[in-house]
Amino acid sequence: MTISKVGVVGAGSMGSGIANLAAISGFQVILHDVEQKFLDNGLSRINKFMEKSIAKGKMTEEQKKEVLERIQVTTNLEDFKQADIVIEAVIEDLEVKKSVFAKLDQITSDHVILATNTSSMSITEIASATNRPERVAGMHFFNPAQIMKLVEVVRGYKTSDETVVELKEFAKKLNKEPVEVKKDTPGFIVNRIMIPQFIEAIKLLEEGVATAEDIDKAVTLGLNYPMGPFTLQDFAGVDIGYYVMEYMKNEFNDNRFAPPMLLKQLVRAGRLGRKTGAGFYDYD
User: Fold this and answer.
1) Where does a domain end: 181, 203, 221?
2) Are residues 32 and 123 in the same domain?
3) What's the first-to-final CA gap in the chain, in angstroms?
């Protein structure tokens, strides 16, 4: 299958990053969200990323203009009739994702691959909302999508070999390194390893063993990680970490993955508006 036009559902941090990446790689892009203000925010993030690239000498103003001309924004899912592949990057809510896939299944051609950027949820269950489970798979990018090299290509129970091969080839055209997740398991590879590390780091903080700053320093200097667990959680969003932990705890029926109380408090504080976007380095 030849891919020339890429659809992206969701103009948040990940969706806008994936759309920008595809456009930089020469693909025509359709970027969707439910309201124009979310699309405007997504375009603003794309513009800021490329402005930084220009400042670093990695891109010219003319190249930036060409990239932006390749991105079409829309609030109408029907526009995905033109897409050769659609990547969903909406909120980590299984029912919301299934609703999006059910609509995309009706709108897009039968041969079109429907991929989800979920970081942990069941590809098989998401695919069950469609009549083409063999053409549904996970395509998990990492934030920022324009920079991070890894893409997890995740099989659902009925995902075909052909779909996996096509997604891996597509990832390479985006200048990414794909890895194949052969079994549809919560958290896939990276989050399955990373989430327990997050949980232990939070427990160390709760127990007063060390400060968040010193835990991050110990991990970056002792394990040679580019950033510590608290910096990474603040960067990715503590609410996302919370939802992933809850999902993995329930799916595995294992309290090892249960979110610690401090994380629950941070998420609740953000929900109540007292500390919107609260993180481990600004929580009081």
Assistant:
1) 181
2) yes
3) 53
**If we measure between CA atoms, which residue out of 265, 272, 203, 191 comes closest to residue 232?**
191
Residue type for position 206: E
Q: Of the given ranges (63-67, 207-211, 242-246), which has the lowest mean pLDDT?
A: 242-246
- Please identify which residue in the block is written with the tokens 């989430």: 195
pLDDT per residue as tens digits for the range 218-243: 999 999 999 999 999 988 888 889 98
Domain-located, residue 142: yes
Q: What is the pTM of this model?
A: 0.91
Residue 85 belongs to domain spanning: 5-181
Task: Pull the structure tokens for residue 230.
Answer: 């608290």
Backbone angles phi, psi at 180, to 5 degrees: -95, 125
Q: Is residue 282 part of a domain?
A: no
Q: Strand order in 5-9's β-sheet? A: 71-74, 28-32, 5-9, 85-88, 113-116, 136-141, 150-155, 177-181
Question: CATH number, domain at 251?
Answer: 1.10.1040.10
Domain count for the chain, please give it: 2
Structure tokens at 94: 């299984």
Q: Which residues are catalytic?
A: 119, 140, 152, 191
Task: Tell me the two tokens of residue 181.
Answer: 């997740």
55 exposure class (CB count in 10 Å sphere: 0-12, 13-18, 19+): exposed
